[in-house]
Amino acid sequence: MSSYRFAIALSIFGISCMEYDTIAIPPKNDTFARIQIEPEFIDFGSVALGEVKTEVLEVSNIGNGVLDIDEFLLSQGAFSFQLPTGYSSLEPGESLDVMISYEPVNVSDTQKMHIESNAQYHPSLDVPLIGRAAYPALKISPNPYAFDWVEVGSVGEGNITFESIGSEPVIIENTLVLGSVFAKGNIELPFTIPAGESISFPVTFAPEEDQNYFGDLWVQSNAPGPDMKVELHGQTGAGSISGRICDPSGEGWIVGALVSVSIDYNNDGVQDIVIQDYTDAEGRYTLEGVTVGEHHISVQKGSYGTSFDVLFPGGAYEMQEETCLNPASVKVAVVVGDYDNVGGLLNDLEIPFDSYGHSNYMNLLTSPELLAEYDIIFFNCGMPMDWIASRGVVSSNLQDYVADGGSMYASDWAHGIVEATFPYAIEFYGDDDILNPDDVGLHTHEHPYVGASQNVLADVLDPTIAGAIGNTTASLYYDLDAWVLPQSAGPGSSIMLQGSVYSFTDRMRLVDNAPLALQFSAGGRVIYTSFHNEHQMTQDMEKALKEIILSL
């Protein structure tokens, strides 16, 4: 075997050492002309308007015959060319330089130079020509420019941004301010803004009496196009509008409602500024800097809203009456349950709702069209559980409902609706997939129904609920064992109330900082609470639940 391997190796090395003769292949003789151009295309880059840039196109004969160039063709436009005097033909190895010039006509110019010759290969050639105009461009913002409120007899100062957004510097040659109460600030003219940079142009406003003022700032520059105009708006005689927002019943104040007014300075139908404020714990708001005149004020709290008009005389104006949220601004559905009565709280707030019980609630959950009729759907603790047999359809419909802006609330044993629809949102104690307490013996530990009856002093982490309660802690009472215990908030969820609680399966085991109410957004808003409306409800629980209802 070894001699065989040696013989193979010898034969291989023997082959590698063989000598070879070098055979010279004579060059192929022909009489063809061949054309070569350098470069194959010309990009002139950016050229200032009114300037000319020239590049060289080298045409060479790399063949063995005489190259006759029949014509150079270039249509009239931004590009032109010049040939050397007295050129005729190119002998082998000769070349000529064609001078091609570019003077911008448009923002971007493109053409092709066409060459016809007797070259054996590529007798017709096109050379792409590309160029761009380098020009100054000016952007002014904001436009219109609105001064902050200025008292009569005072001078308001403002700054308008001039930005050079072209490829050449902008020269601000002159400005003109129209309107006797407006003026240019302390800046010397002319001045230059390098390309890509900006400056602050100062302007002043000195009102003479209580009224709204309008003016113009005209700017003359080297940027192509007409002079630019900036509308100037000044306000005086303005002041504040204050008031209070109440719930639909008129019995409670709304915390965290957004109150806003849009100002259209020049009555062109386009809002120039929005002034807004959020109500405090007593429902109070103040809109500062409102101009004299008639205004439409909007109020929004969750899905609820209202609006009103006011003829504002100026100064510090206090609305004579509170404004209550409009209960007709939302449509509400309640899936009733044995252990919760959110409908009682809705009645207290004078919010109308449609009830769905065991006989018809599946009509709601399996109909996307019916779901879409409602802004908010409440799922009570102790609701029917036979929806689980249609879990896929129900969860899909509710996902779409919330994605389209609908809001949901579920309490305690209705947690399965949230878990089936948004399994990532809340981590419940034990096996999250146990949605029905009848499916497992409550003496085990592998389910979420482990909350013990107890009093809890919860930390209120949601500032709006804290405002509604008037404290950063809340007294909660769980009168029965086996309430559903959330364990942690999932991605995108936030804890509204939390507290340390005992498990009824092990009364000596304290669960620290358990999330007792949580919220998240999936288009619309979803809120889950482990507590709910029962006869033993504390005042803190009632205030928190009413705030939750109004926040949806």
Compact overview of the structure:
With 552 residues, the chain is mostly beta strands. It is built from eight helices and 37 strands. α7 crosses α8.
Q: What would your notes on this structure say?
A:
This protein is mainly beta and 552 residues long. The protein has 4 domains: 35-134, Immunoglobulin-like, CATH 2.60.40.10; 138-235, Immunoglobulins (Immunoglobulin-like, Sandwich); 239-327, Immunoglobulin-like; 330-551, Rossmann fold, CATH 3.40.50. Helix content is 13%, strand content 43%. It contains 8 helices and 37 strands. The strands form 8 sheets. Strands 28-27-29-30-37-36-35-32-33 form a 9-stranded mixed beta sheet, sandwiched between helices. The protein has a 5-stranded mixed beta sheet with strand order 2-9-8-4-6, with no helix packed on it. A hairpin with a 6-residue loop joins strand 8 and strand 9 (124-134). The longest helix has 15 residues, at 2-16. The radius of gyration is 40 Å and the shape is flat. It starts with a helix and ends with a helix. 36% of the residues are buried. Residues 1-21 have low confidence and may be disordered.
